[in-house]
Design a protein that fits this description.
Structural class: mainly beta
Oligomer: single chain
Number of helices: 1
Shape: elongated
Helix content: 10-25%
Order of helices and strands: HEEEEEEE
Radius of gyration: 20 Å
Distance between the termini: 72 Å
């Protein structure tokens, strides 16, 4: 019995340590380096903090809350990996700085893939949502109505 208690205490300590760690920036996002894939960010980089902007950026769910900077004519690609039970909604863009373009590939069920071209100086906000849990499959199951929000601000630098 004493051996079981010690193992339970050790397992709880490891679990709490793992839950308390967070890699990256806000909401478990990427570290303050570059957005996932191509592009640069960080001081003097393409995150809108005052430096050179990049021609291409590739964003994933981990980039939520970030600001990236594109040069005019640049492209931002978004890949959000979901599941059939917890799919991402299509990415939407608010603002006039970006124009949707062909992402070039299809997405597996539950994933969302989008691409935008930087067509005008200014700022755009990209957003998507994903259910926190799967929809009920039987009448006696409880529905979870929570949503995970994904938002990235894209700044397009003038020529």
């Amino acid at each position: 019995m004493r051996h079981t208690t010690a193992a339970a205490v050790a397992a709880t300590a490891l679990l709490l340590t793992g839950c308390g760690t967070q890699s990256g920036g806000p909401a478990g996002g990427s570290p303050s380096g570059s957005p996932s894939g191509t592009g640069t960010a960080g001081p003097g980089g393409g995150d809108g903090t005052g430096g050179a902007c990049t021609a291409e950026a590739a964003l994933t769910a981990e980039d939520t809350g970030r600001t990236v900077c594109l040069t005019a004519g640049g492209t931002v690609r978004v890949t959000l990996d979901g599941t059939p039970d917890r799919p991402w909604s299509p990415v939407t863009s608010e603002g006039s700085a970006l124009t949707p373009t062909n992402a070039g590939i299809g997405a597996p069920r539950g994933d969302t893939i989008a691409a935008y071209r930087a067509t005008a100086p200014g700022t755009a906000r990209l957003t998507s949502t994903q259910p926190l849990c799967a929809s009920p499959t039987a009448p006696d199951q409880v529905a979870c109505l929570g949503l995970r929000e994904w938002t990235v601000t894209v700044r397009v630098a003038g020529n």
